[in-house]
Amino acid sequence: MKNALITGITGQDGSYLAELLLSKGYKVYGLKRRTSLPNLENVQHIEKEIEWVFGDLTDPGSLIEAVLRSNPDEVYNLAAQSYVATSWDQPTLTGNITAIGVTHLLEAVRRVKPDARFYQASSSEMFGKVQEVPQRETTSFYPRSPYAVAKVYGHWITVNFRESYGMYACSGILFNHESPRRGVEFVTRKVTRAVARIKAGLQEQLAMGNLDAKRDWGFAGDYVDAMWRMLQQSKPEDYVVATGETHSVRELLEIAFHHVGLNYQDYVYVDPALIRPAEVDVLLGDATKVRKLGWKPRVSFPELVTMMVDADLASIQGRVLNVAAL
Ligand code: NAP
Ligand code: G4F
């Protein structure tokens, strides 16, 4: 049986990856921050199958302890301050977690279990003001937010540990991927949750930012399989993971509202406060390289959006029932 250590396991991707590795017979160790209240919603169905280790990417000693305890064959670093908009409000915190935190974890692996295979969650945000279309592994980075700058650091320190120490360390440059487990502030979930609430009469309007931004959106459950495949190869390399399609925020609104028989223009207004100081206008990935590992996206953009709306509708109905039962 292989051991895997996952940081960021309570987040969207961590929960899907934990499910995947458990289904493959791994013993899964999950790094978890101390929180004042439980935040295990995404992993409650597998909570008892996971070996929990407490730690924080900003605390090197706790990461050494986590690697010692888990004795991992594979380490997946998914933890980050991952919300781009917050990175302008908290740039130093974002750098400490999303950039320097990667070095803390790589150092812990290098000192304790240097033959462990290491995955770094790099991001298409690194392409920022894109230098070519579509973006591929060789496209230059031009980060447009403190988050993206931190991710560029995390990406290159991973390359550096691979080249300096011969570690099996690689990065997946993942384009946006979403699911019903997505945090509620990200644009897809913000929209699908609002659609469900408007349909249920719990909300009247929806304030949005830049409706013209375009993203290459896929399904998170598909993308964690690509992470695993990257760590099963004979040598470590970096890979772009994307669908190869791009859609605007406006298209997202159209599909989500239309799914419940509504017109988004009757409910949505643009709030200038939600426009970012610097924007990534369009992302579109070329996943040719990772497709050669047998990976491909399985959920289309309309399927993804309607899946998320349906999940939010079901969640609201469940909540109403629960309240009624009290
Ligand atoms: P997410 O839902 O925001 O999850 C982030 C995770 O990181 C949470 O488990 C969070 O724990 C944990 N975390 C935050 N700060 C930490 C710290 N100081 N120490 C330890 N853990 C910490 O993110 P996601 O969407 O699953 O994304 C996973 C990773 O992929 C992130 O690194 C993200 O930047 C990157 N990425 C995501 C996408 C995407 O479209 N989803 C695309 C490219 C790259 P709490 O639950 O305690 O907050
Ligand atoms: O959903 P978003 O907040 O995601 P963003 O900024 O693309 O970042 C996500 O994907 C990255 C991969 O490319 C990850 F690395 C990162 O961790 C995160 O998961 O915003 C998407 C787009 C942006 O252009 C934003 O300006 O939607 C636009 N947008 C328009 N109105 C909005 C809103 N975004 C949010 N969150 N809220 C709005 O009201």
Structural write-up:
This protein has 326 residues and is an alpha/beta fold. It folds into 2 domains: 3-178 and 218-241, NAD(P)-binding Rossmann-like Domain (Rossmann fold); 187-215 and 245-282 and 300-325, UDP-galactose 4-epimerase, domain 1 (Alpha-Beta Complex), CATH 3.90.25. Helix content is 41%, strand content 15%. It contains 10 helices and 13 strands. The strands form 4 sheets. Strands 3-2-1-4-5-6-11 form a 7-stranded parallel beta sheet, sandwiched between helices. The chain has a two-stranded parallel sheet with strand order 7-10. Strands 8-13 form a two-stranded parallel ribbon. Strand 1, helix 1 and strand 2 (27-32) form a beta-alpha-beta unit. The protein is globular and about 60 Å long. The N and C termini lie far apart (45 Å). The mean pLDDT is 97. The structure holds NADP nicotinamide-adenine-dinucleotide phosphate and ligand G4F. Ligand G4F binds at residues 82, 84-85, 123-125, 175-176, 185-187, 190, 208-210, 213, 215, 249, 274, 276, 279-280, 283.
Task: Provide the fold topology.
Blueprint: E1 3-7, H1 12-23, E2 27-32, E3 51-54, H2 60-70, E4 74-77, H3 84-89, H4 91-112, E5 117-123, H5 146-165, E6 169-174, E7 177-178, H6 187-199, E8 206-208, E9 214-215, E10 218-219, H7 220-230, E11 239-241, E12 247-248, H8 249-259, E13 268-270, H9 288-291, H10 301-325
Parallel strand pairs: 1-2, 1-4, 2-3, 4-5, 5-6, 6-11, 7-10, 8-13
Antiparallel strand pairs: 9-12
Helix pairs in contact: 1-7, 2-4, 4-5, 6-8, 6-10, 8-10
NADP nicotinamide-adenine-dinucleotide phosphate binds next to helix 1 and strand 5.
Organism: Alicyclobacillus fastidiosus
EC number: 4.2.1.47
Keywords: Lyase, NADP
